[in-house]
Backbone:
C-alpha cells in the first residue's frame, strides 16, 4: 500500500515543493522525508495526499527557518508544462521564457494561501485535499480558488502581460 501511495503522489509532492522553494534538491529531500514519516507512521491516514502536503509544508518551513539563505517562492519552472513545444523556435523559446517570468512574478505577488491553492490545484489535488492541506473548510475552497484565480489574472494584467494561452 505504501509503495502505491509513493508512486502515486511523490512526483506531485516534489513539484509542489520545488515551486514553493525554488530549490529542487531541497524539494526532493523534503518530499523523501515526508514519505519516510508516512512510512514510519504505520497506518495510512484517511487522506494521505493532504497529510503529506501538510507534513511537507511544515518540513519546508522548518528548513527555511534553519537556513541562512533566502528561497524565492515559486522560483524555477512554475509554467514549464503550460507552454511546451517539442521543437521550439528561438522566438518561441523567448516567448515561453517571458511567460514563465510573468507567471512567476504574478504568483510571487499573491498572498501565500492563494499561491498555495493555485499550485495545489494545478498539481491535481482535489478540493477536499486542498481544504485539509490548508486547514480551510471544504465548502470555502471553490470560492477561495475563484478569488485566487482572479487575483492571479489581475497580477498578470497589472504587469502588462496578457493572460497566457
Residues:
Amino acid at each position: 500500500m505504501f509503495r502505491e501511495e509513493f508512486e502515486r503522489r511523490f512526483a506531485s509532492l516534489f513539484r509542489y515543493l520545488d515551486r514553493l522553494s525554488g530549490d529542487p534538491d531541497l524539494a526532493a529531500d523534503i518530499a523523501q522525508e515526508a514519505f519516510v514519516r508516512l512510512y514510519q507512521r504505520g497506518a495510512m491516514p484517511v487522506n494521505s495526499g493532504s497529510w503529506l502536503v501538510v507534513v511537507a509544508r511544515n518540513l519546508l518551513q522548518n528548513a527555511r527557518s534553519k537556513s541562512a539563505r533566502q528561497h524565492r517562492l515559486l522560483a524555477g519552472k512554475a509554467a514549464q508544462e503550460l507552454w511546451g513545444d517539442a521543437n521550439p523556435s528561438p522566438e518561441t523559446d523567448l516567448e515561453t521564457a517571458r511567460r514563465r517570468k510573468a507567471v512567476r512574478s504574478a504568483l510571487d505577488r499573491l498572498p501565500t494561501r492563494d499561491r498555495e491553492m493555485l499550485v495545489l490545484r494545478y498539481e491535481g489535488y482535489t478540493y477536499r485535499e486542498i481544504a485539509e492541506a490548508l486547514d480551510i473548510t471544504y465548502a470555502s475552497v471553490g470560492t477561495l480558488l475563484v478569488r485566487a484565480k482572479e487575483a492571479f489574472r489581475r497580477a498578470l494584467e497589472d504587469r502588462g502581460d496578457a493572460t497566457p494561452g
